[in-house]
Design brief:
25% helix, globular, four-stranded antiparallel sheet, alpha+beta, 244 residues
Length: 244
């Protein structure tokens, strides 16, 4: 399931920094109506089972350190295979129809539950937020986290393995015979360097906006649509949409 959230500034102007993933992630956690569920989700070291899109900025221009919405309106999508998470988010947004965005209260202008598309065993998708795939690699005698790029075949194998692991954990399965193949024709690949603020620390990620082809079991394709592809979905990576 997925929601579309539209927010508007009372000032009719809104500054959005280039790197805002941590801001949107905090908005989502703060809007979960079930506080015990929110705490459990936030503190979990496992998969988060939700993702969100990049922000769509209405009527904007780029400025020195971000974007300026000239009518103060933005929207973004939230997606999850967990229907309860979506339900408790709707309750949270309805109960308090303001959102704190970098110290400014934005009005919740609209909450939309989007229709579920029809899925087939081959799906062409595009990323609504950049996808990230990482491995541990020895560099100078030390293991370091290494971001893979779509020109590396391991990029797609890791996407497939990560999706199946998430699917099994979400459904409480030890094994599954469901399979999926993920590939790309590399027509619309755009690299994005994303900075994530975590307290006083920053982490840097090389991620990619791109088109992908998913072929395989319908349940896995639907799960990829709901949960996102790749790593760090809870920080807004790997949300996809069907190309119709």
């Amino acid at each position: 399931m997925r929601l579309k959230i539209t927010l508007k500034s009372k000032k009719n102007r809104l500054k959005i920094p280039f790197n805002y993933n941590h801001i949107v992630s905090a908005i989502i956690y703060n809007k979960i109506h079930d506080l015990e569920f929110a705490q459990k989700l936030h503190s979990s070291n496992s998969y988060k089972f939700f993702t969100f899109s990049s922000i769509h900025i209405h009527k904007f221009r780029q400025v020195k350190d971000g974007f300026l919405s000239q009518n103060g309106t933005i929207d973004f999508l939230i997606s999850s295979p967990d229907d309860y998470l979506i339900k408790t988010l709707v309750e949270g947004f309805l109960e308090d129809q303001t959102v704190n965005f970098m110290g400014e209260d934005l009005l919740v202008q609209k909450i939309e539950l989007l229709p579920v598309p029809d899925f087939e065993e081959k799906a062409n998708v595009n990323t609504l937020s950049p996808v990230i795939v990482r491995i541990k690699k020895e560099v100078g005698g030390k293991l370091k986290i290494w971001d893979l790029n779509p020109g590396d075949g391991q990029f797609y194998r890791n996407l497939e393995n990560n999706l199946i692991k998430k699917y099994k954990e979400f459904n409480g399965l030890e094994e599954t015979d469901k399979k999926i193949k993920i590939s790309s024709e590399m027509r619309n690949v755009k690299r994005k360097r994303i900075t994530i603020d975590k307290g006083e620390e920053q982490t840097f990620h090389r991620a990619f906006l791109m088109d992908l082809v998913l072929e395989g079991d319908l349940d896995l394709i639907k799960f990829a649509y709901d949960a996102g592809l790749g790593e760090k979905s809870g920080l807004g990576f790997g949300m996809v949409d069907l190309i119709l």
